[in-house]
């Protein structure tokens, strides 16, 4: 299945006006840049990965509440693995799944972009590396990836956050590539963001207590409350790409509809920038974040 995915991605032409808009607003919407066939191939491959997952071996729950966010060895090792995280509302009081497994997973991450052949072929395409270069990256590297389900009925809210809180570089360089594998609508939990909000700078850093520690903490860098009235909805059709500056504040509301909102995200960093040892996500010992394919 991996064969042909990279070839099926067309080069993305963006104008100087779009580049300027990205830097001014902190995000850019590129509609329908991934074909329906490729979206369906990613979705099909994820179904295969889900079928191989044995939920009795681990029950790691993904929480969107930064104050209660906890880490464990499974979470830390997910940086270089294909790991599964449940929705907060997936289990009943007795610890049993309320609905089938395939409707209970919040996300899968964070090493899909180099651990799975299908997602690798898509993620490391020269198309994305070229786009990141146009947006100002000198040596773009894929640091993290995740497949997000936004399950019907129980897809949890993701609080307003900045991606660079969790992936920090000096100087700042993080760019998120958020792909709509399915339509993202107002009803099923599309992205919302605050245009120009990235200009306030980074508010928090999620970091290890010390290098190699699995204990983490949230460090406040500056006090600022996001004005919810400034949020704008970013609904996009299947196959669209939303490019997010690492300091762009964004969220998604809970999905109470009967329709899922699958998405796939890649977070890139510039290899010319310093990547601190205190960042929770680290490349495996002896290796580095993977480059995109050459054009």
Explain what you see.
There is one protein chain. With 295 residues, this protein is an alpha+beta fold. It has a single domain, classed as q2cbj1_9rhob like domain (Jelly Rolls, Sandwich). The protein has six helices and 14 strands. It has helices spanning 16-25, 36-52, 73-77, 112-115, 117-123, 126-134; strands at 27-30, 82-86, 105-110, 140-148, 158-161, 175-180, 191-193, 204-208, 216-220, 232-234, 241-245, 250-252, 263-270, 290-291. The strands form three sheets. Strands 1, 2, 3, 4, 6, 11, 13 and 14 form an eight-stranded antiparallel beta sheet that branches. A four-stranded antiparallel beta sheet has the order 5-12-7-10, with no helix packed on it. The protein has a two-stranded antiparallel sheet with strand order 8-9. A hairpin with a 7-residue loop joins β8 and β9. The protein is globular, with a radius of gyration of 18 Å. The mean pLDDT is 91.
Task: Give the gist of this structure.
This protein has 295 residues and is of the alpha+beta class.
Lay out the secondary structure:
Layout: H1 16-25, E1 27-30, H2 36-52, H3 73-77, E2 82-86, E3 105-110, H4 112-115, H5 117-123, H6 126-134, E4 140-148, E5 158-161, E6 175-180, E7 191-193, E8 204-208, E9 216-220, E10 232-234, E11 241-245, E12 250-252, E13 263-270, E14 290-291
Antiparallel strand pairs: 1-11, 2-3, 3-4, 4-13, 4-14, 5-12, 6-11, 6-13, 7-10, 7-12, 8-9
């Amino acid at each position: 299945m991996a064969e042909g995915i990279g070839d099926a991605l067309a080069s993305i032409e963006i104008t100087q006006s779009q580049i300027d808009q990205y830097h001014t607003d902190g995000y850019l919407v590129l509609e329908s840049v991934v074909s329906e066939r490729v979206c369906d191939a990613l979705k099909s491959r994820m179904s295969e990965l889900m079928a191989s997952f044995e939920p009795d071996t681990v029950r790691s729950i993904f929480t969107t509440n930064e104050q209660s966010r906890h880490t464990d060895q499974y979470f830390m090792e997910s940086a270089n693995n294909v790991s599964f995280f449940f929705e907060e509302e997936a289990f009943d009081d007795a610890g049993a799944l309320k609905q089938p497994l395939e409707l209970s997973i919040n996300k899968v991450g964070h090493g899909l972009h180099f651990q799975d052949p299908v997602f690798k072929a898509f993620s490391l395409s020269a198309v994305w590396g070229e786009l990141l270069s146009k947006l100002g990256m000198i040596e773009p590297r894929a640091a993290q990836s995740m497949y997000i389900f936004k399950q019907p009925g129980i897809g949890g809210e993701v609080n307003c956050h900045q991606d660079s809180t969790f992936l920090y570089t000096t100087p700042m360089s993080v760019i998120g590539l958020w792909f709509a594998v399915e339509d993202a609508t107002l009803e099923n939990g599309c992205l919302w963001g605050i245009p120009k909000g990235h200009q306030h700078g980074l508010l928090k850093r999620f970091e290890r207590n010390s290098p190699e520690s699995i204990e983490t903490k949230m460090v406040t860098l500056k006090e600022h409350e996001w004005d919810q009235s400034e949020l704008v909805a970013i609904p996009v059709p299947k196959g669209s790409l939303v490019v997010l500056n690492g300091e762009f504040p964004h969220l998604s509301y809970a999905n109470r509809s009967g329709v899922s909102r699958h998405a796939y995200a890649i977070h890139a960093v510039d290899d010319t920038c310093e990547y601190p040892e205190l960042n929770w996500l680290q490349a495996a010992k002896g290796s580095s974040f993977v480059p995109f394919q050459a054009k």
